[in-house]
Amino acid sequence: MPLLLNAQDYRAAARRLLPKALFEYIDRGAEDENALRRLRDVLDAVHLVPTVLTGHGERNLQAEVLGHKISMPVIIAPTALAGMVSHNGEIKIARAAERIGIPACISTQSVTTVEEIRAGAPAANLWFQLYLWKDRSLSRALLERVQKAGVDTLVVTADTPTGPKREYNQRNGFAIPIKYSARLGIDVATHPRWLAGVLMRYILTTGMPTYGHYPEEFRSSVTRAQLAERVKLENLLNWNDIHELRRWWKGKLIIKGVLSVEDAELAHAAGAEGIVVSSHDARNLDILPAPIEVLPQIADRLGDKLEIIADSGIQRGSDVVKYVASGAKAVMIGRLPLWGLAAGGETGADNLLSMLRNEIDLTLTMLGRKTPYECKTSATHS
């Protein structure tokens, strides 16, 4: 395998090793992917101001988020079907996060259950991402399981009222649930390492991968249709639902997908402790602003009332510092750990997270700053 020195190296390795349909499901955006391209353009246009001759011998990358000290201002974002990237991928990511000292957020649509992830990473700081089901009693039962597994932070995804338009998935024959096709079959067959190391390992041990958090009576493999009305994702989610959820979820509550001051204020009024300023990594709607464009206004207005996390487009440690300098307490990363996982399994995830930490440290060193929270941007984002 070639030397992996940056995020794009890991991405290229993941592209070689994963079936095209799965790689593009992880990697690409929505519609014409203008928002995905703008994420990079906008982040690249943000500059940070150095201070020279500071004589700092070491940096402090630690952050405190929702009362927990973490080793750097980074959180693993929830990603659906991470367990399809590598066998037991969700457990591997949780262990990598545990070792480096940051939280990992588990998706409602993970392959592995929260109980199995907890058993595999007993000391990890696990968060849980929720897509509410139509049947609220089933969602409540799921969250009781989540709490029993020692999770105290719930992240509600608020920006996906319907499925996005991702035309490449249709061209690749990729859908959730997965549908057999000649094109997809050839794609899988031409990636034998993934076929043998991931899919066949599931089939020979636990069977075809499933959505692990669905209730037993509705659980099906990812190749079968989810037809039960009770476990369809709620497409009419509103702030009254968040108020109700706040009444019966006893842990910390975060709303993910906020891009306006008004919605940040509504999240605070609903009793949320935090928000994620996010465009869903440009995967949902192609006309959204880059989160770092709206982050400063939201942080100025609500930064003393809410824990403000941000995500989307992060590829370098300097991107993390840019988000923090713009008002975020921490950032979430989604694609990066998946690229690391695909490129090298658990070791790949470890190495990518270490690389990111080293890049943050290098950025601070060159800026003459001791912590990311001392950094300042040079101009208004354009």
TrEMBL record:
This is L-lactate dehydrogenase (Cytochrome). One of its GO terms (cellular component) is plasma membrane. It holds the Pfam family FMN_dh. GO terms for molecular function: FMN binding; L-lactate dehydrogenase (NAD+) activity. GO terms for biological process: aerobic respiration. FMN binds at residues 78-80, 107, 129, 157, 256, 278, 334-335. InterPro entries: Aldolase_TIM, Alpha-hydoxy_acid_DH_FMN, FMN-dep_DH, FMN_HAD. Its cofactor is FMN. Residues 1-382 form the FMN hydroxy acid dehydrogenase domain.
